[in-house]
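Blinded run. Sample ID left blank on purpose so nobody reads anything into the name before looking at the predicted structure. Input follows.
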Amino acid sequence: MTEQSKRHNSIFATKSMRGLLLGSAASLAFAGVAAPAHAQDAAEDDDSNVITVIARKQTETLQEVPVTVTAIGGDTLENFQVNEIADVVSRVPALNVQVGGSGSGGQISLRGVGSSNISASFDSAVAFDFDGVQVSTMRLVQAGFFDVEQIDVLKGPQSLFFGKSASAGVFSVRSANPTPNWEVGVKASQEFEENGTTISGYVSGPISDALGIRVAAQFNNIEDYVDLAPGTAAFNPNGSVRTSRGLQNFVSRVTFQWDPFDNFNANLKLNYIKNENDGAIAHSDINCGPNGVADSIFLLGGGVVIPSNADCNDSDGLYHHTDAAAALRSGVPAGSAGEGRFENGIPFGETDMFFGRLKWDLDMSDSLTLSSVTGYLNLDAVDTDCYGYVGQFGNVPSGVGCSDPRNRTEQFTQELRVSSDFDGMFNFMVGAFYESREIDFDTSQQGVNISFLGPDPVTGNTYDWFKKHNTKTEAVSLFGSVTLDLTDQLELSGGLRWTDEKKVNTVTVPYVHTFLAAGPAFINSGFFSGPIRFSDSNFSPEVSLRYQATDDINIYAAFKTGFKSGGIDNSALPSSSLLGFDDPDPAVRQATADALIYQSETGLGGEVGVKAQFADRTITLNTSVFYYVFDDLQVQNFDATTIQFQTFNASQLTSQGVDVEWAWRTPVEGLNLSGSLAYTDAEFTAPFVTTSGEDINGRAAARAPKFAANAAFDWSIPMSDAFELGLNGNLQYSGSYFTNEDSLTDLKQDSYVSIDGSISVGDPDGAWKLSLVGVNLTDEIWINTSGGRPFLEPGVGDDLVVTQNRGRQVFVEASFKF
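Blinded prediction complete.
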């Protein structure tokens, strides 16, 4: 084990709790000697149908906040077995989520704007906010979640209040807090299509008058998460034939709520998540391209040709993921993540994550509140797989292009805010934010698959190289906002955030196969780049105007800007292109570093909206029109010919459209109807020459259907004082869209419809409930992303790798609450 590995393995014991708790130590000490407590005025709204959101770092009603927000309550999440981020797309038409990928591990896109799932160096354009802490890594897309109070999806740039990595929007998850009375909840479900079992539970209540606790955990085991096509050469460690790939998730959380004084409260959340799977590429299928042929794997100039086992049917939910070829699998380089386990060539994946958040609020006076949010994340993720995706001779595994990327991330964040609550027309919020993050992204790869000619004669390794990237990030930002109640009906608000971000990256190549190092195209073992530096600063202003025409109608207009920092690409091959780092000429070294640097992404535009309720607030209709221009959009494509990821800054993308959301509490007792519609016109509006060599200026953005919508109903039917029937349904529609951003003729996903539904019986107060739940009942398979399949014969092969959603799921569920 390397010294670096030892350092990361010991991080939890030595730094996690210390960093989380000590990050607020000074200000907590201040809270402890604060002025005597005083009564805090708080108007309680007893309308249970009022939805609150935290879109501007303070609690506001959904109908008042001048932001386009979709709020999904905990009851809806439970009714439809929503325990992954990807499950939310059926309720948010402008949202696209992809799970999987060897780089960042996932992707979230809103209104056609998102960041690549194949780059671990990119921050997400849609910020992931977990209980008030912004987490930059998209590995959280892979992790399951549960016991959630509410999910809020904020659309459009949100940099003023959420800072960097919110250039396209925010995906915010709020987990449940301790209850005022003791509760015990247990839930178990069995899923039949994927053969999955889920068991979860929580205990919540007051330990004392001032301290509450909630302990929650969930275990999810899916035997047939990915169904393999018949005859695929894939095996279990015991040698038996594998017909599917599985998935296990364990999610746990402890929450403490402390209210020792009327003017002070604190909330501590400690999360541990463990994910295990049978490989990274999951629901990735092969589209056979215009030639309609499953192209062979073409290696070493045609010296090795392996037939494809793909069946050219990319909509049957069957996948062709073979194990590694014997010649490639045994010699994993020392210190690499697959050492000791991937020698058998059987793919696997593991993610361990600890996340902690400490939030507290101190009322310094009747009108001033000091708030602190401290966050700590420690993540260790390994994804082993063979990125040739296909290939076999009979029942002999012939997977090629195998790698074992390991992503170790440690992140500490601290935010402090002071906000006012004056009786007059003027109120403000000022704050500061700090982030320290370190990412180690290491992998052994088979980009050439040279070991078909023979293992390394010196080391015996069968991999082409072992490469390590270390990136350290330090970000500081200051922000302030002002709200002016110009009249009883007219509110003007605005603010500014300044951000300064610095990144330092190093590239280390401990090992290059002797056969490759002997030629001019690759570097030698032991390469070290030295520090590669990137820095940028940004001012992000925002202004909004809200007019309350009546008690139930709000009209707003907002001007917004977004910012997402650039950085250093971590997908460079250990080729001769890196030799410039060893050149004595500083200009050559700088030019070599500049080739790995991508620039920051910015957004600018605005929206106008109306939020209205009618008929005694039984009908809600919220509409917004938006127009945003994104400059230097960060894009990463894959060149299937050179087997090289290429990072770009697309010159400009314009996203404009309309969002509509509606809800109706009908006169029929217990029946609620709701839905949403999104029209999005997102296209490149300046020259952008991609990997293909084509200029896609004027082409629509990927994952941006012109029209998308959903319609839902929820009906609770009282059958007696002790018995209730529940019916729930949701229909999702998506128009067609491009699945890649590489050429004018990229693969397009056709329009599709999927349907979810559930029927339940239970106690009206929730003491027990039995449910039958169906997700994607039409078993619709759609494509999220596409890209060239590696190892194609130049000028002949045109296969594409497409990533897809999960198919139909049918659950039987029982839940009890005591």
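Unblinding after everyone has recorded impressions. The chain is about 5% helix and 50% strand.
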